[in-house]
Amino acid sequence: MQSAHSPRRRRVLAAVACCAATAALGRLALAQPAERVIRIAAKKFEFTPAEITLDKDVPVVLELTTDEVTMGFNAPDFKADVEIIPGQLTRLRLVPDRTGTFDFHCDVFCGDGHEDMSGRIHVVQRGARD
User: Fold this and answer.
1) In terms of C-beta distances under 8 Å and separation of at least 24 residues, what long-range contacts does 24-32 make, across chains too?
2) Same domain for 10 and 27?
3) What is the largest CA-CA distance in the chain?
């Protein structure tokens, strides 16, 4: 018979505890709400929508599309910069870390009027959009 403090018994108990902790964390991860998705269409020479409101410190996924020519989405305050390829979905995960109003713009020349292709991101304290 093994003592209550045998090395084998401690290893078995540690393995059981580890499995239980892993299962609990897995359930917690599955219970997390899905990230908010905002679709933004880029076309000559505008983004639709051109203004979005986000909650501070809450992850969001921007789904960017265009059917015309290659365009860009650049939100320099968040170091977010992607190309939007015609016919493809471009996903950009963003976690705004401060409140305020921030500009974004197309940074890939797409024709006359390109310089006016911009929008705004309004970041508010969590729950202030309600």
Assistant:
1) none
2) yes
3) 86
Task: Decide if pLDDT at 105 tops 90.
Answer: yes
Instruction: Please tell me the predicted confidence (pLDDT) of residue 130.
Output: 56
Residue 96's region, left for phi above 0, alpha for psi from -120 to 50, else beta, is: beta
Mean pLDDT value across residues 55-80: 96
The range of the structural domain enclosing residue 49 comes to 36-124
17: pLDDT strictly greater than 80: no
- Residue 125's identity, in one-letter code, is Q
Q: Are strands 60-65 and 36-43 parallel, antiparallel or unpaired?
A: parallel
pTM for the structure as a whole: 0.72
Asked if the structure places residue 130 within a domain, the reply is no
Q: Are residues 40 and 5 in the same domain?
A: no
CB 72 within 8 A of CB 108: yes
